[in-house]
């Protein structure tokens, strides 16, 4: 029996239900964290604060020490890119790359 009470299969072609359930639990936890981030950013009114909040929330919720966003330079949002790169909070977490490199 698996820890969840399901009988174990001797057939190697059948998936292990315990592993499937564990993966489902992990995916639910990830979805919950993303939902919390989404709810937290709904009231943000400017792009700079949006990027700052998204980066910090991902670091905090997922325990990822280094988070960054890459944007393509000279794109439709080039003015936004320039405004964001001037932000002290985003300077280390925002990567502006050339279109050819991308």
The SSE order reads HHEHE
Oligomer: single chain
Number of helices: 3
Number of strands: 2
Question: Which structural traits does this protein have?
Answer:
mainly alpha, 102 residues, two-stranded parallel ribbon, 2 strands
Structure described in brief:
The protein is about 50% helix and about 10% strand. It has about 100 residues and is mostly helical.
Describe the structure in your own words.
With 102 residues, this protein is mainly alpha-helical. Helices cover 48% and strands 8% of the residues. The chain is built from 3 helices and 2 strands, in the order ααβαβ. Strands 1-2 form a two-stranded parallel sheet. The longest helix is centred in the N-terminal third of the chain and has 25 residues. The radius of gyration is 21 Å and the shape is elongated. The N and C termini lie far apart (50 Å). The model has no long low-confidence stretch (mean pLDDT 82).
What is the element layout, followed by pairings?
Blueprint: H1 17-41, H2 47-62, E1 69-72, H3 78-85, E2 94-97
Parallel strand pairs: 1-2
């Amino acid at each position: 029996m698996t820890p969840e009470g399901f009988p174990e299969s001797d057939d190697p072609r059948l998936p292990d239900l315990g592993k499937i359930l564990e993966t489902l639990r992990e995916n639910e936890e990830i979805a919950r964290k993303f939902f919390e981030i989404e709810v937290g950013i709904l009231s943000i009114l400017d792009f700079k604060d949006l990027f700052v909040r998204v980066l910090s929330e991902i670091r905090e919720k997922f325990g990822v020490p280094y988070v960054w966003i890459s944007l393509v330079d000279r794109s439709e949002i080039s003015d936004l890119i320039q405004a964001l790169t001037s932000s002290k909070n985003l300077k280390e977490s925002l990567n502006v790359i050339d279109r050819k490199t991308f």
